[in-house]
């Protein structure tokens, strides 16, 4: 994207923050019409998928799409014929290319996926710009006060991201791309792994002293406990919990522990900034750049104020890999009420994506937390694993459900899983855990049709 075009997109996004609902919806309608027309012309997949839908039809007349559908027809979905599934599979399999642009142009994010198979999502320059701007327009105004500005300056604008590495995941790969492409990024952005023992993570953050802390909600709650008992001593201006739901009580705990601004971010690899929290604690959906449709199990619209079975999103910024009425799998609730902050962007709530934090006892008798995304990623990174679920069935027992990719040997994959899990737990000082294989493969939840990754069957 040319600098003038980037500036135009950025300026419009900021102007929309103070727009009326009618003005916001007008932006959405215009971009939606342009996206539908473009997808039907330029994507072979959508041209066929919408063959029976008359031009100009209401969005609800367009059949939804799923991740598995888009991955199966990947070469026909993308609108740049230079992009092929075979070549992009090779690209994302190479960890040395994390943070590089595919074909020198396109950011590429992958996801292990709570709905089953991994997904690959290519971003164009507009989508990359929007992923930054939509978060900034809600968060930056909160930094205007004397205390936040003072902390930002004192901590030299350092940003710490706590996210799983080892692949082209949106958080880690996006951060690495910014580090590669800007002097600011190289100096002031750092990735921290939730797989690290909590004491090691605390020590590293004490040394780094971030001004902004972004990452997994479950990890932040544990860090807040460390701040309260004196093990952690940082003074961020801003904390951005994301990737997992977080309660208002937990957010207040973060505010009290770190004496800072806290803003929840709700997004997905497919569209990063779906909603951002305002100063009144409400998540506002960024509907000028994404269409959000809460629906029931039959993809029918539901009433406002009712939790959905799933949500369909239409990404209005990304034309290289269009996502139109894409089944994201999350349960959300949309509300009609206007927020006291004055914004006309609709309020929404999210539920259903958080795994359980498992508390184990070390060999020395100390209780330590093991975070769900860290634990599941250990298994997902084993070659040959297609999907997995990890269940705590007894105080010292983890049961692993898994299925394998075509050509992989289940017995060999299981031995690798068992070895990697035991090694991971030992790094946390936990050695008296039995890891056993389940008799059944991973199961979808009956209501949501999603795959939970980590949970405990104990009353903890």
UniProtKB/TrEMBL annotation:
Signal peptide: none annotated. The keyword Ligase applies. InterPro entries: ANL_N_sf, CapK_Type1_Caps_Biosynth. It comes from the Archaea. Keywords: Ligase. One of its GO terms (molecular function) is ligase activity. Residues 436-460 are annotated as: Disordered. Residues 442-460 have a biased composition (Basic and acidic residues). Gene3D superfamilies: N-terminal domain of ligase-like (3.40.50.12780). The keyword Cell membrane does not apply. This is Phenylacetate-coenzyme A ligase PaaK, adenylate-forming domain family.
